[in-house]
Amino acid sequence: MKTLLIILITAFISVCSIQAQEKGSMVEYNNTEREIPLKNLQPNKPISRSLIPQIAYACLYNKVVTVSFEEAMPTVTIKIIKEATGETVYSQEYMNPTVISVDLTGQDSETYSIEVVSDTISLEGEFIL
Q: If we measure between CA atoms, which residue out of 43, 116, 125 comes closest to residue 75?
């Protein structure tokens, strides 16, 4: 009987511990930097079978989207669109950018898309605030 009681108490403690860890990780997830995968917008371009270096990277941290560039670009346009309505919430053209930060604190928690367009690249990504 004691063995059964010990097994039940151990199982109860481990279930409570697992649930606490899941809830804690959800809060932690909201406060961590998340990458926004960017993919090519040009649909008619042939698929390359070799590695293509990524020219721009985007990430989200506390409702701030940061786009960083691996190489100098003469002119880049960043556009952020609310997916549900198609409304452009941010659009700006930059000259020779290296890192761009866009604060979306005033925006609702919804799905957005980001477009990074220049003469040589055209990338798009999707993220949730």
A: 116
List beta partners, residue 95: 75
| CB contact at 8 A, 114 and 36 | yes
Query: DSSP code of 107?
Result: S
The residues, any chain, with a CB within 8 Å of residue 61's CB and separated by 6 or more, are 32, 33, 34
* Residue found under tokens 């481990």: 14
CA dist list (Å): 75 to 52, 83, 93, 113, 121:
21, 25, 7, 20, 11
Distances (CA, A) of 39 to 4, 15, 20: 55, 40, 36
Tens digits of per-residue pLDDT, 56-82? 899 999 999 999 998 888 999 999 999
What letters, b where the CB count within 10 A reaches 16 and e where it falls short, cover 94-122?
beebeebebebeeeeeeebebbbbbeebb
Cα–Cα distance measured from residue 72 to residue 76, given in angstroms and rounded to the nearest whole number:
10
pTM reported for the whole predicted model: 0.67
Q: Taking every pair of C-alpha atoms in the chain, what is the biggest distance, in angstroms?
A: 76
